């Protein structure tokens, strides 16, 4: 019973919070919690502690990554700008609003992570407050940690 139940007459009797014929399905929804507090970002179901994304555009451990959505780059643009360059619309509120990702600076665009890595990756090209282009990537790893690489 995978250590999550007791075998009685060749049938597993599962401990609380476990189900399945071998008690190998956790009913704990904590790993499915998205950063907005919703289970699977409201775009999937939590099955055995893993999100099954029902909206095909969304993927990742908590259904928060959307490669085809325009939103990923635009959504994080202001936070990347204030964290990397100390400017932009969120400059004053950067500490409160923009600490939800790990940030790494790279020297040039060819040093940014490239597609083909295991985590879904968005390449972003956005204009800053001075009307100059800046480049960054946004990805979420299997632990649900957001990672930003920015040229600067």
UniProtKB/TrEMBL annotation:
Entry GO terms, CC:
cell surface; focal adhesion; integrin complex; synapse
Q: Which residues form the Integrin beta subunit tail domain?
A: 73-152
Recall the GO molecular function terms of this protein's record: C-X3-C chemokine binding; collagen binding involved in cell-matrix adhesion; fibronectin binding; integrin binding; laminin binding; protein kinase binding
Pfam families, A to Z: EGF_2, Integrin_B_tail
Lineage, top-rank taxon, reads: Eukaryota
Cite the entry's keywords alphabetically.
Answer: Disulfide bond, EGF-like domain, Glycoprotein, Membrane, Repeat, Signal, Transmembrane, Transmembrane helix
Q: Fetch the PANTHER family from UniProt.
A: INTEGRIN BETA SUBUNIT, INTEGRIN BETA-1
Name by which UniProt lists this protein? ITB1 protein
């Amino acid at each position: 019973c995978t250590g999550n139940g007791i075998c009685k007459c060749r049938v597993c009797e599962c401990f609380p919070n476990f189900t399945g014929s071998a008690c190998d399905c956790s009913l704990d929804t904590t790993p499915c919690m998205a950063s907005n507090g919703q289970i699977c970002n409201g775009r999937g179901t939590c099955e055995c502690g893993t999100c099954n994304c029902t909206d095909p555009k969304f993927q990742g451990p908590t259904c928060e990554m959307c490669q085809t959505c325009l939103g990923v780059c635009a959504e994080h643009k202001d936070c990347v700008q204030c964290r990397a360059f100390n400017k932009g619309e969120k400059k004053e509120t950067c500490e409160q609003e923009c600490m939800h990702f790990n940030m790494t600076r790279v020297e040039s665009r060819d040093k940014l992570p490239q597609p083909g890595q295991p985590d879904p990756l968005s390449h972003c090209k956005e204009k800053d407050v001075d009307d100059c282009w800046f480049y960054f990537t946004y990805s979420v790893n299997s632990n649900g940690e957001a990672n930003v690489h920015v040229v600067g």
